Amino acid sequence: MKAKLLLTLLAMAPVGMAIADEQSVEELQLRCEQAREALLQPLRDAEIAKCKAERGRDPAYCERYWKDFGDASRLASGTMKARMFDDLPECVAAVKAKQAADK
Prior knowledge:
Layout: H1 2-53, H2 59-66, E1 73-74, E2 80-81, H3 89-102
């Protein structure tokens, strides 16, 4: 009976560790997004304010146009422009954790 229980627990351990790894990856990704947003929000707000200050601009247009400031985007050449602040320590750790979890 003890042997069956032990084998069952050992068989379940990798699954449990995978779930824990997945949670930590998600947690790291969340921290990355929060850190990025903390840096992007003032820049985004400044661009929206500058846009609204231009004569004849619709404030709703300015908010829509600048809402994704700092995100990845496709350039006219077809290549991708990387999103801003992906080099933060939180984001680097999240990428490394994701790569380790995918192995």
